[in-house]
Design brief:
alpha+beta; 5-stranded mixed sheet; 44% helix; rod-shaped
Length: 530
């Protein structure tokens, strides 16, 4: 049963929706925070304007606080408090309330005439016992302040208050302070609490009395705006996520369409077995295009490998048919006429068949990726031993020449490298006229083994072909004398498996020269010398 999120499109759509939702939530929180800050600042600015307007009114500066024109609605609260914390005037919404002294400006130094109120412990204004009979919350103000022009001054002499207003921290006489304190307070009106953005501004009357004007602007409209914005964003979030998921699904589907084409073509190739077919390559130069090109390269290599195996099987069958047929014929003749059996020919065919089977087995192991050994070999000693072993049976004894006796050692399999030298010597014995030369030399960090003869040589156009399997350049020569055409192919595959290379060129004597290049053994190699 398929999993719900098994497809790439589904996972991509889900991932995009999650990322976008997280980004939208974070952005929404930031927007709400910035909007709340701006709206609160705007309300505080309105409160400051109102407080300064009231504090700078002529009635306030003359001390006639009962003549102040204060707002009467609940959206804007105003209260005027003297330095002793008594309410001098208040709007209708704060009628009967105590002083709002939570965040008044800092009090003046001790011993000065400044009378800034001491902050109260309560966060909101509370009713008091003395405020009776004043329509503007000024009952307590009438008890101590000036009712119509400041005749009474709370028993405080006004002569000293005009001497050094800047030293007391209070504004000068008849002036309003440039400082302002802002605070958000919750004020209970009726049976509900409401948030207000308050501003507190100090002023000094002409006769030296200090007072503080508290003006508050309701944050109800701002809160309603924030709630509306929040609801709108929450309502739009699911639709935005659906749009993002849908667009991601469609875009991913379109982007993966070439991949589906590659998959379908690969399935068709697998079903038909036709390795000549290729997957479609999109025009875009992206990862999918590179995937298609790499897939086609893999198919081409697979096609060549299959063709090579098929040709190998066909050639091997052809090569095996002749000695097997010869053996069968000789056995049938011997069965009918025992005296006519030629054991020499029979032995020759068996040996040839044995060599061919060994060559085929070695090629199969090399094609399967068999790794060579890791023994440290003295190539000079190996060559001299192999030439000496073959000397009694070779038609021409090779001449071995070493550039010096201190050639670098090589790393590999002794048996396989001896097989390479044997195949090259066998090839030279078949084609040489009078001499074969085996040379060992140093070429940088490599060791070069050269087997040269003085035969007819190999034409430049045919040199790449001599390393192909079952290839004989002289088709007219006897199959029995020419071999199966596997010796040079095996030699090249073994050398390349050792990290080297085998090439052919023209010898100084005019014949063919085969060059085996092998890398020197790395320093500190753990293998023991062989």
């Amino acid at each position: 049963m398929p999993r719900p999120l098994a497809s790439v499109r589904a996972r991509a759509a889900l991932a995009a929706a999650l990322v976008v939702s997280f980004a939208l939530v974070v952005t929404g929180i930031a927007v709400i925070a910035v909007l709340r800050h701006n709206l609160t600042d705007r309300a505080a600015l309105e409160s400051e304007v109102t407080a300064r307007t009231v504090a700078g009114a002529q009635a306030a500066l003359t001390g006639d606080f009962t003549a102040l024109d204060l707002p009467e609605d609940r959206d804007r609260l105003v209260q005027v408090v003297d330095s002793g914390g008594r309410v001098l005037a208040a709007g209708d919404a704060l009628h009967g309330r105590g002083a709002l002294t939570d965040f008044a400006p800092a009090p003046a130094p001790t011993g000065t005439p400044s009378t800034t109120p001491t902050p109260s412990a309560a966060p909101t204004a509370t009713p008091t016992d003395d405020d009776s009979g004043d329509d503007h919350g000024g009952g307590r103000g009438r008890g101590r302040g000036s009712g119509h022009g400041g005749d009474e001054t709370d028993g405080t002499s006004t002569e000293d208050t005009s001497t050094d207003d800047s030293a007391t921290g209070a504004p000068a006489r008849g002036k309003v302070s440039t400082d302002v304190d802002r605070e958000t307070l919750s004020v209970r009106l009726g049976d509900r609490s409401h948030d207000y953005g308050f501003a507190a501004v100090q002023g000094t009357t002409y006769d030296g009395r200090t007072y503080t004007v508290y003006a508050g602007t309701s944050l109800a409209d701002e809160q309603a705006t924030l709630d509306q914005v929040t609801r709108t964003m929450l309502a739009a979030l699911p639709f935005l996520l659906l749009v993002v998921a849908g667009v991601t699904w469609l875009v991913t589907r379109r982007a993966l369409r070439p991949v589906e084409g590659i998959r379908a073509e690969m399935a068709a190739i697998t079903g038909s077995g036709d390795l000549t077919r290729r997957v479609p390559v999109p025009r875009s130069r992206d990862e999918i295009g590179r995937l298609a090109r790499t897939t086609n390269q893999t198919l081409a290599a697979l096609e060549q490998s299959v063709e090579r195996q098929q040709r190998f099987v066909a050639d091997a069958s052809h090569e095996l048919r002749s000695p097997i047929a010869s053996l069968r014929t000789q056995i049938e003749v011997a069965d009918q006429h025992p005296g006519l059996l030629d054991t020499g020919d029979l032995h020759h065919d068996v040996v040839r068949l044995q060599h061919l089977a060994a060559d085929l087995l070695l090629l199969a192991r090399l094609d399967a990726g068999e790794q060579p050994g890791h023994a440290v070999l003295d190539l000079t000693a190996l060559v001299r031993e192999e030439v000496a072993r073959r000397a009694p049976t070779d038609r021409v004894v090779p001449d071995v020449r070493a550039q010096d006796d201190d050639l670098p050692q090589v790393l590999g399999s002794r048996g396989q490298l001896a097989r390479v030298l044997g195949n090259l010597l066998d090839n030279a014995q078949r084609h040489t006229a009078t001499a074969i030369t085996v040379t060992l030399a140093r070429a940088g960090d490599d060791v070069v083994l050269t087997v040269a003869d003085d035969g007819h040589g190999i034409a430049p156009a045919d040199r790449p072909r001599v390393f192909e399997r079952f290839v004989r350049l002289d088709e007219a020569r006897s199959r029995d004398d020419g071999g199966a055409g596997l010796g040079l192919a095996i030699a090249r595959d073994v050398v390349r498996n050792h990290g080297g290379d085998l090439t052919v060129t023209e010898a100084p004597s005019g014949g063919a020269a085969f060059l085996v290049t092998l890398p020197r053994a790395p320093h500190g190699t753990g293998g023991a010398p062989a």
